[in-house]
Amino acid sequence: MAKQILSPLPGTFYRRPSPDKPAFKEVGDTVAVGDVIGLIEVMKSFNEVAADQAGVITGFPADDEEPVMAGQPLVELG
Amino acid sequence: MAIRKLLVANRGEIAVRIIRAAQELGIRTVAVHSLADADSLAVKLADEAVPIGPPAASKSYLKIDAILEAARLTGADAVHPGYGFLAENADFADAVEAAGMVWVGPKGDSIRVMGDKVAARIAAEAAGVPVVPGSDGRIDDPDQARAVALAIGFPVMIKAAAGGGGRGIRIAHDMEEFERLMPQASAEAKAAFGDGGLYMEKVIERARHIEVQVLGDGTRAVHCFERECSLQRRRQKVWEEAPSASLPQAMRERLCASAVALAEAVGYRGAGTLEYLYDDASGAFYFIEMNTRIQVEHPVTEMVTGVDLVREMIRIAGGEPLRYRQEDIRLTGHAIEVRICAEDPSKGFQPAPGTISALRVPGGAGVRFDTMLYQGYTVPPFYDSLLGKLIVWDEDRASAIARMRRALGELAVEGLPTTRPLHMLLARDPEVAQADFHTRWLEPWLERNAHRLEETPE
């Protein structure tokens, strides 16, 4: 089964550090444990999401600026 | 025009507060809401509810078109913006009026003038209200900036003329630092606001935050005395009182009279607040800005004056003249409000949404709890962490603090952490009891008391 990085918190998922910056990661990028893959905004406070698994990104099940629940997959790894 | 149906363009506890005021006036209410707020108390209490978009505020509560469309669909004839979101958006105020509806607030042009730091300062000075020593208007020329810095004395605060929300603010302690920071501030202002113009003012090192509540009908204005909100964390107020314990009566009269003068000078309509810094060592006060809306902490003023501010702002918007003369408004007793937020004080005030598994609301004499909570409600993660405001009134400040301790002891919000433990400690603190604080008092106190906040005192 494909590995996934899950959202640690409920909130809004952002794939980029700010609206005018490129995404932290793209499909095809290699991810090491501890790499920041996105931000979760919870009640106006921004929390970095660090990868807890390593691999190559095959997809983003959650879109940029999408509301997510805790435990919802953010990144799929091949 | 008498208001028959009021659309509330907000959420949370303030939406509930506005709906209650409208109901008491016999006005029907429309709650607009995001998809994340379909279960909100405001939606349950309003006569009608209209979904206006996805959870993100930028796609719902900040969507002017969607809100106007909801008003059209429901036949609303007035809009109350609450606080935050579009409350100080002059274009929204204008759009509501252009659509033939009543805007419960000041005219768009009043919002524009008072929302611009330089224009507000000029209006204040013209009305004889003392302002923080600084540049008389915007500065675009470096030589002029240096001359102004020397004239007002260091430390100097450099702000973006077009700025807001603390962005672009720098503090220079001497000329060397000023030379280094001024170009940075200008570049940041240009990048953030498209306008590199600067504005400078003296830093008041140890001050209290004191604000005056005003009500105006466009011609005449009255004040409802002051609030003190010196206990702040990251420039956010956490504990508010009315009246200020630090203000001598003669100073109170001068401060409040200055607020009325400014409100009348700009033809202010509705409820507004003039914010001041007050240096209790020298007795000097300085106007800093005006908020052209109802404020979070308005209930402490209601408790000490008996004036229902939200109801009055709706009446004024509906075309009634101000119902009070200044001498009708009396200050009685002392009120304190604490903000109960979904934040964990033991973990650096990390926000923590969740589901309310149990709720016990304090009661008894002189206690009020303005909240959007109910048992089983799930607090969404997309908005501000404010859950409710616990307000107490008593005959004097010491009794009000004792009543606050008692009410905090009764309050139980289960299912998520709240800031209740912080307020339990503050309500027992000897310096708080003496009102011996200023705007930079709370943050070092939090560092010293971090271990006590981890224990979650009962």
Key attributes of the depicted protein:
heterodimer; A: 78 residues; mainly beta; OB fold (Dihydrolipoamide Acetyltransferase, E2P); four-stranded antiparallel sheet; B: 458 residues; alpha+beta; Rossmann fold; Dna Ligase, domain 1; D-amino Acid Aminotransferase, Chain A, domain 1; 3 domains; eight-stranded antiparallel sheet; 34% helix; 26% strand
Report on this structure.
The complex is a heterodimer of chains A (78) and B (458). Chain A has strands at residues 3-6, 11-14, 30-31, 36-42, 45-50, 55-59, 66-68, 73-77. By secondary structure, chain A is mainly beta. A 4-stranded antiparallel sheet of chain A has the order 1-8-6-3, with no helix packed on it. A 4-stranded antiparallel sheet of chain A has the order 5-4-2-7, with no helix packed on it. The model of chain A has no long low-confidence stretch (mean pLDDT 93). By secondary structure, chain B is α+β, with helices and mostly antiparallel strands. Chain B starts with a strand and ends with a helix. An 8-stranded antiparallel sheet of chain B has the order 13-12-9-10-11-14-21-19, with helices on both faces. In chain B, strands 3-2-1-4-5 form a 5-stranded parallel sheet. In chain B, helix 7 (142-152) packs across helix 8. Chain B folds into 3 domains: 5-104, 3-Layer(aba) Sandwich (Rossmann fold); 133-202, ATP-grasp fold, A domain (Dna Ligase, domain 1, 2-Layer Sandwich), CATH 3.30.1490; 208-454, ATP-grasp fold, B domain (D-amino Acid Aminotransferase, Chain A, domain 1). In chain B, strand 4, helix 4 and strand 5 (102-103) form a beta-alpha-beta unit. At the A-B interface, loops of A face strand 16 of B.
